[in-house]
Structures are given as structure tokens and as C-alpha cells.
Amino acid sequence: MKTLSTKSIQSQLILYFTIAILVPSIITGMVGVKIIQHQIYTRAETKTISDLNSAREIYRNKISQIENIARLTTARSLIVKAVIENNSTFLQKDLQRTLQREKLDILTIVDKNGKVISRGHNAFAFGDNLKEDKLISRAIATKRLAGGTDIVTREYLMRESPELAAQALMDVIPTPKAKPHKDKQESSGLMLKTAVPILDDQGNFLGILLGGILINRNFEIVDKIKEIVHEGEVYKGREIGTATIFQGDLRISTNVKNEDGTRAISTLVSEEVYDSVLSGGRRYVGEAFVVNALYISAYEPIRDIDNNIIGILYVGVLEQPFEDILKNTLAIFLGIALLGIVLIITVAVNQAKKISTPLKKIENAADNIAEGNYSQTITVHAPREIEHLAASLNQMAKELEREKLEIEEWGNTLEKKVLERTEEIRKIHSQLFRSEKLASLGKLAAGVAHEINNPLTGILTNSSLLLDDLEKADPRREDVEVIVKETIRCREIVKRLLDFARQTKPQKQLIDINSIIENIILLVRNQTSFRNIVIQKELSENIPEVMADRDQIQQVFVNIIINASEAMAKGGSLTIESKLAELGDSILIRFTDTGTGISDDIKEKIFDPFFTTKEQGTGLGLSISYGIIEQHGGDINIESKPGEGTKFTIRLPIYSQESE
Ligand SMILES: Nc1ncnc2c1ncn2[C@@H]1O[C@H](COP(=O)(O)OP(=O)(O)O)[C@@H](O)[C@H]1O
Ligand SMILES: [Mg+2]
Which of 60, 174, 286, 526 has the CA that lies 20 to 30 A from 488? Predict the structure, then answer.
């Protein structure tokens, strides 16, 4: 019964508190991280898209730049003149200077049919036709400027210069997650070109000036993008912003670095981007694995003037910083949650202790009470309800203890009461027994006495007459005198018997006990039997009068005093006291003699009628006295020690019910 549940309040509270904090924190954490992740990536992607726009601008700008150089060149009259004159040597020198100054890769002049007049790069390569060049053919057809991106063959580059051809040549590096390239080697190149018409003063179309830059291994654009868009920001040793130009799927110009720090050219675009951008012609924005790291990337197709997809422009931001922001946020989140849990657990433990410690106390106390140990007070410092519980328990224990004591006490008094009652009943019983015995004996004695009385009167009359008739000297006279004397004694006994038997109702009146005692003393003092006895009286003054039969009470006192004198045949002292009883409801009259005393076995019988230890005794004195005192509602008490003396105490109620 002691432990109904194996779990304590404390552990339960901690468990529930922890669950209560843990579940929402985990959910909040997860949702929070998702939201933040989404926000970060959306922002990153938006940023990347705008980066891509910037990159496109820079890319286009480069084309415009070439265009401007070309325009300025064609505007010069010396150039126009030389074209008209077909002065290759002059043109070549001039073009070469511009080429070097403006860092162009191609600066070539063709006539209106596309035949090369002069190449800035190569003084000896002219006369061939360049109409195959899309921009040139477009410009010739439209007689207007044409600019854009174009793929050029190795032969095309070779005609310009072997260095350019070599610059474009790349051994394709197999790249994970990429589609295999069509060849192991890529020899063609990607160029930004502008074809500007050359017009004479009259506006006649003379030919085309073609300017161009080979993008392969040329990092100017991508680095510029990086500079402008990302300001060259570096994160953990890595450049955050990257830009790449693909020729088809081949990385020909980039600032994405390999592990060894070299630019990751000659590698391939991932298959996913390939499908989306090269095959699908769509922009691709998202997380992408570039060379060796994850980037938030944006790719868009590069188209030639015929709108064919020939390459890809790419910008990417290293994902690591965002990832780290996310990680940090998550860490902070977890940290706060953890702190919260620790805090909650601490609070829970504390709270649980605050509840469970006093409850444990109360539990122990309740166990003790159950075992019957009530004398204990619990003092707890706890929430109001628990303190109330403890107080109630204390109250209960106190109440139980009080009741226990009461029951014990009651048990004790009950025992005492039973004993008292038993004693009372025994007394009443013996009184009743005695009264009954007295009553029946009285009836018998009355009958006998009545029958004896008449013959006795006869005997006395006749013996008296006989005594009168006898001479004074007659020797028989003594015998007759004995007859007369003994007959008188018999008559006296009979009279007493009749008195006893008559059970006369006492004639009660207010009497002064002390005066009765005084009278008796006067009477007995001169009797011979009291010659050697000292009578002492200790009578309390001002004791109230009692309702009693004067003659009967006097008879009782005389009986007792005579008995005392008989017990002190050789002398002694008789003390007679009277006083108010302690309770004030009765008067005590005590007769103390220094006589023979009464042994215990005799003491039981002295009130029986006809019980006597004396030769001449009648055994009626005390039994009559007992009857009288009983009829007055009082009692007689004896204390005696054989050889020392006897003490008779009579108690008479001052105002008994019977006296009413
Ligand atoms: N004061 C006393 N001292 C000793 N014995 C007494 C005293 N009073 C009474 N008794 C005893 O009680 C008995 C009964 O007394 P009682 O009834 O007066 O009859 P009786 O005096 O005729 O013997 C006496 O015989 C005596 O043995
Ligand atoms: Mg007597």
C-alpha cells in the first residue's frame, strides 16, 4: 500500500516539463531552420540572379568596347584611304598597333566581298575569304554593324596566329557529374566579335573591320565580373563570387579554382545544367556543384547572332557562407533550446522538490499515524495546498491522540467505576440480605415473644406472690427471688425482641445530637461498669440538627457505649466525637474504645441478630442499632484492631429523603 506508483512526483514533473519544452523547441527549431534556410537561399538566389544580370552587362560591355574600337578605327580617313587603295602594308601596321594597344585578338579588314585585305596579327595572311564568318556576312548583307559571340575553328584561329590557336586548344578534363565531351580535345574557340562597315566619304560601302577577343584562357571578363559583383570578397581562403564562360559545355574562362589554386578551365558543366541550359535554353538557378564545392549558381545560355546556343554564362556564390550562417543560426537556436531545457529542468527539479519533499514528509507522517504514532507535528514550507494538507494531518493526529487518551482514560475510569459499582452492589446486596434476615427473624421473634409473654406474666405474678407469702427467713426465699429476677430478665428480652420485631417507624424530629450524647454520658458515668473508664468527648459545636427519632438514636448510642465498656472490662478510655462530614450533608458520630478489638472473622457477623461472644449477651444490640440507623438513611462503619481497640462511626444524614 505504501507505494502505489513507482514514479515519484519529482521524476514525473521533470519528465513532463522536459517533454513540454523539448517538443515545441524541436518543432520551432525545425520550422525556424526551414524558414531561415528558405529565406537565406531565396535571398542568395535572388542575389545570384541579379549577379547574373550584372555579369551579362559586363559581357555585353566588352562587345561594345570592341565595337567602339572598331568604330573609331573605321572612322579614321587614313584607314578609309588605305582600304580604297588596298594598301595592305599600311593597314597591317596600323591595325597591329591598335591590336596591341587595345589588347584585341583579332583586327581584320575585309573588302565588300569578304576577301581579307589585311590582318593586324599576320602581315602575310591575306587574300582569303572570310565570308564564312557569320558576323562579316551579316554586316556585308546589312551594311550595318554586327556584334556578338561566335565559335571559331582552329583553322580560323591559325590564320590569325598560331598563338591564338594554341590559346584556344584545350585537353578536356573528365569531370564528375558531367556529360562526356564530344572530343578529348577542344581546338575551336569562343570569340566576342564586332563587324563594323567601312564607308567612304560618300557613304559607299568599302568593306568590314572585324574586331574580336578570344575568350578561351582570357580571364578579363570573368575577373571583372568577380571584381564588380563580389568586390573580390574572400571567405575562408576561397573567393565567394565566381564567374565562368563556357564554350558549349567546356569551361574556357573562369575564376573557379582547382584545389591547387589554378583556374579550373578545361572542365565540363554538370549534366543537370547541360540539360537545362544547353539543351533546354533555360536559365538555371540553384545549388550546383562546381568543380569541388557547392555554389548557389545562375547559368544562362550564350547565343550567337543566329540565336544558337553556343555557350553559358555563369555566376555563382560559394554556398559555404550561407551554410555557415544557417549552421550558426541552428547552433544559436539549439543553444537557446538547450539553455531553456537546462533552465526548465532546474526549475522543474526545484519545483518538484518543493512539492515532493514536503509530500514525502507528509507521507512519512501519515505512515507513522497509520502505525499509531500520533505525537508528531509536521512543519513544511510548501505551496498553500500542501501546507494546508500538512496542517490538516497535524490536526488529525492531534485529534486522534486526544481521542486515544480519552478512550484510555475512559477505560481506566470504567474499570474504577465497575469496581465501585460492584462494591456498591455488594454492599446493597448484603444490606438487603441483612434486612431481609432481620425482617423474617423479627416476624418469628414477634410470634415467639407474643406466645412467651403471657406465660411469663403468669410466672412473674405467681412467683412474686409466692415471694410475698414466704417468711423472711425462709430458705426457699432465695430460689424464688432467682425465679422472679430471671423472669424479669426474660420479660426484658422479650420486650427487646418485640421492639426489634416491631420495626417501629421512627418518629422523626429535629434533634441535637450533641445533647443526646451529653445526656447518655451523664447517665452512664456513675454505672459501676464505667468505673475504670475515662470518657472523653470531642463534640464539634454548631453542627446542624438532624431529623431523627430521639429515643431510637439514644438507644443506638447506648448500645454502642455499653458494648465498648464491656470490651474494656479492665478499664480504658472511650472517646466520643461528633462532627460535620466533609461533604457537609451528614453528621459523623464516632465512638473509639481501647478495648479488646474485633477480629476480622467476627467483624462480619456482629450485626447479625443473636450473634454474641458474651455469656450473658443477647446478640441483639448491634442488629437493632443497624436497623435503626438504616431506617434513618445512615450507616455504621467499624474499624478495629484486635488488642488495640475499636472505632464505630455512625453517619446520619442531616436531611435525608426519608426524613422528608
Ligand atoms: N466495642 C466492642 N469491642 C469489642 N467487641 C464488640 C464491641 N461491640 C460489639 N462487640 C462484639 O459484637 C458482639 C455483638 O454485640 P451486640 O449485638 O451488642 O450483642 P451483645 O452485646 O449482647 O453481645 C459482641 O458480642 C461483641 O463480641
Ligand atoms: Mg451489646
Answer: 526
CATH of the domain at 410: 1.10.287.130
Task: Name the residue with the closest Cα to ligand 1, atom 24.
Answer: 612
- Ligand 2 centroid–CA 622 distance in Å is 7
Is a pLDDT exceeding 50 seen at residue 318? Answer: yes
Write the CA distances from 431 to 435, 501, 578, 627, integer angstroms. 6, 17, 25, 10
How far away, in angstroms, is 646 Cα from ligand 1 center?
11
Would residue 33 count as lying in a domain? Answer: no
Q: What pLDDT is recorded for position 143?
A: 93
Closest ligand 1 atom number to CA of residue 602: 27
Ligand 2 centre distance from Cα of residue 561 (Å): 9
Q: Could you tell me if residue 356 is inside a domain?
A: no
**Domain co-membership, 451 together with 581:** no
Domain boundary among 258, 290, 323: 323
Higher pLDDT, 585 or 381: 585
Q: Binning pLDDT at 50, 70 and 90, where does residue 528 land?
A: confident
Which atom of ligand 1 lies closest to the CA of 568?
A: 3
**If you take atom 19 of ligand 1, which residue's CA is the nearest one?**
619
151 and 96 belong to one structural domain: yes
Asked whether residue 634 falls in the same domain as residue 490, the answer is: no
Residue 350, in any domain of the structure: no
CA distance 573 to 592: 8
Query: Quick one: pLDDT at residue 504?
Result: 61
Which whole number is the average pLDDT over 341-364? 81
92 lines ligand 1 (CB under 6 A): no
Tell me the CA–centroid distance for residue 569 and ligand 2, in Å.
13
Q: Is 621 in the pocket of ligand 1 (CB under 6 A)?
A: yes
pLDDT category at 450 given cuts 50, 70, 90 is confident
**pLDDT at residue 503, as a whole number:** 56
Burial class of 68 by CB neighbour count within 10 A (0 to 12, 13 to 18, 19+): middle
Residue 439 belongs to some domain of the structure? yes
Q: Residue 567: CB within 6 Å of ligand 1?
A: yes
Task: In whole angstroms, give the CA distance from residue 513 to residue 554.
Answer: 9
CB-ligand 1 contact for 612 (6 Å cutoff):
yes
pLDDT tens profile 112-137: 999 999 998 887 888 899 888 999 99
Query: What total number of domains does the chain contain?
Result: 3
Q: Whose C-alpha lies nearest to ligand 1, atom 6?
A: 563
**Which among 447, 468, 503 is the end of a domain?**
503
- Measured in degrees and rounded to the nearest 5, phi and psi for residue 199 equal -120, 150
CA distance 329 to 36: 8
Distances in Å between the alpha carbon of 509 and those of 16, 553, 555, 626?
Answer: 94, 11, 16, 19
| Shared-domain flag, residues 407 and 552 | no
Q: Nearest C-alpha to atom 27 of ligand 1 is from which residue?
A: 613
User: Looking at the structure, do residues 415 and 305 belong to the same domain, yes or no?
Assistant: no
pLDDT-derived band at 93, boundaries 50, 70, 90: very high
- 585 shares a domain with 610: yes
451 and 536 assigned to the same domain: no
Share of the chain above pLDDT 70, in %: 95
The answer, yes or no, to whether any atom of ligand 1 lies below 6 A from the CB of 563, is: yes
> Is 502's pLDDT higher than 70?
no
User: Rounded to the nearest whole angstrom, what is the distance from the C-alpha of residue 622 to the centroid of ligand 1?
Assistant: 7
Q: How large is the average pLDDT for residues 371-400?
A: 83
Give residue 527's pLDDT: 82
Give me 247's grid cell: 564554350
Q: Is there a single domain that holds both residue 245 and residue 314?
A: yes
Q: Kindly state if the Cβ of 561 falls inside 6 Å of ligand 1.
A: no
619 lines ligand 1 (CB under 6 A): yes
3-state helix, strand, coil in the chain (%, to 5): 55, 20, 25
> Ligand 1 centroid vs 567 CA: distance in angstroms?
8
CATH number of 199's domain:
3.30.450.20
The C-alpha cell that represents 233 in the structure block: 570578397
What is the residue range of 552's domain?
Answer: 505-660
Give the CATH number for residue 529.
3.30.565.10
DSSP track, 232-270:
T-EETTEESEEEEEEETTEEEEE--B-TTSSB-TT-B-B
